[in-house]
Give the backbone structure.
Amino acid sequence: MDEYIEKHLTDILISINEIESYFVKGNMRYDKFAKNILRQRAVERNVEIIGEAVNRILKIEPAFELANARAIVNTRTKFFISSSFPFHKYSAERYDERTNGPLSTCLYSKE
């Protein structure tokens, strides 16, 4: 097996173990999970890592057999887009790429 594929598979396993470790005490109700932003972000980050690792494996070996590989990569992309581009919070015209946040209102008053 290619050493890079092996490394990416290890990354996937580590991320799966990390996600499982966030729920050691058993199942968590969704409403509690939804209120725990730290846990949500940790899970999202690990899903992104898993998706990126699968994506890189498929680039190295397109015929690599992995169930639902495209769905895994697409899930990573959804998390990445929603966390990296907060257009859902700010309209595009008020978004400042330099600060990754809204443009200051004082900037608008200097038209």
Remarks:
- Residues 6 and 57 are 9 Å apart (CA to CA).
- The helical segments are 3-21, 30-35, 37-60, 69-84, 105-108.
